[in-house]
Design a protein that fits this description.
This protein is α/β, with parallel strands linked by helices. Helices cover 58% and strands 9% of the residues. The chain starts with 5 loop residues before the first strand and ends with a helix.
């Protein structure tokens, strides 16, 4: 039976794990209203000795009455020795964790929160905690895109602004669903708005947020399919001026084009109309009808039904601007461009893409 006094939060993203644990700590703090009855312990250990000290400190804190009597609220934050690393796999750490089970099961007036990332889910302590604690595995409960959207919306709300759905998708495209960057960029955008505006729009994200890491090269992709030749050429100029590689951009264009082809086929088959709203129910209904044609698996541009409904709804009117023949021709143009990129030095890649844009515009 799980204990109402022991909370255990794990996940693959340390930022999301810490935020979720902080939510529990804040909510439970109502029952521990003086500062001396709350304790946050740094759970990061570089050596076995550190892990032993952390667990000993947590036990002592949870077992000691607060200054005004009653129990204490203890948060062991950012525990990093519940994996197969050198410290986590050491026999001394395993013994200390085994011994800590006794005091965690015997909590009465005190409450303990443990937040850990990264973890090895087959670790014996984690398996034990699943049965004995209020257990939360963020990686299993929330997919990456869902966690990202939740965090962005919560951050915007905390800053006193709203963010429209288009801005969320644009932000995700630019920074690759990175939750910590998403929160920071929302704070930056909210500060930029000041008191004159109260909504983060897609335009503000496009203008003010740079692309990070494996971002989706959102502007260049948007511009390419917009039909606006001037914007497409300017976006490419900015892309290559910043020293970015050609192949990830080409991959992004191909991925979007694959989705447009699938949407165009559904439009031509009478399953969708360009003006339709792509709801989750609509997508699920179409998925049930055509699922046999697709392999199940992770999100992929090869499977329309693995995509976010809002994003597809945004692409739906765009797909109506092209015939299926034009979209298939574009895919052939992308293959030819890829061959040219492989055959020519990097200095020529910008011109290869400009030629691609001009050819697509004439298609």
């Amino acid at each position: 039976m799980s204990s109402p006094s022991f909370y255990f939060i794990i996940g693959d993203d340390d930022f999301l794990v810490r935020q979720k644990a902080a939510e529990f700590f804040e909510a439970l703090s109502d029952d521990y209203d003086d500062d001396l009855s709350r304790d946050i312990i740094d759970g990061r250990a570089d050596r076995v000795e550190d892990a032993l000290r952390i667990l000993k400190e947590a036990k002592a804190s949870a077992s000691t009455l607060s200054l005004f009597g009653g129990g204490k609220l203890v948060w062991i934050n950012e525990v990093n020795f519940l994996n197969m690393g050198k410290t986590g796999a050491a026999q001394g750490t395993k013994i200390a964790l085994e011994e800590s089970k006794v005091f965690l099961e015997g909590l009465k007036d005190s409450k303990v929160i443990i937040s850990a990332s990264p973890v090895h889910r087959s670790h014996s302590f984690i398996k034990w905690a699943q049965k004995k604690s209020q257990f939360h595995d963020l990686s299993k409960n929330e997919k990456e895109d869902i966690a990202f959207r939740r965090l962005v919306l919560e951050t915007a709300s905390s800053m006193g602004v709203s963010i429209d759905p288009g801005a969320i998708e644009c932000l995700a495209g630019k920074i690759g669903y990175h939750p910590r960057l998403g929160a920071e960029e929302v704070r930056k955008l909210a500060c930029f708005l000041g008191q004159s505006e109260d909504q983060i729009t897609e335009k503000s994200v496009m203008d003010l947020v740079p692309e990070f890491g494996e971002g989706d090269f959102f502007e260049a992709s948007e511009a390419f399919f917009s039909g606006d030749l001037t914007w497409a050429l300017e976006a490419l100029e900015r892309h290559f001026f910043q020293g970015k590689d050609a192949r990830p951009l080409l991959s992004t264009l191909q991925n979007r084009n694959r989705l447009l082809i699938q949407l165009r086929v559904l439009i031509d088959g009478g399953e969708l109309r360009p003006q339709d709203r792509m709801s989750k129910e609509t997508l699920n209904e179409l998925s049930r009808k055509y699922a046999q044609h697709f392999e199940e698996g992770e999100k992929s541009s090869l499977n329309l039904f693995s995509q976010n409904p809002w994003f597809l709804g945004r692409l739906l009117p765009l797909s109506a601007k092209f015939s299926a023949r034009q979209l298939i021709d574009l895919q052939a143009f992308f293959i030819e461009a890829f061959q040219n990129v492989l055959a020519h030095p990097k200095e020529m890649h910008a011109q290869i893409f400009k030629n691609l844009v001009l050819r697509a515009h004439q298609n």
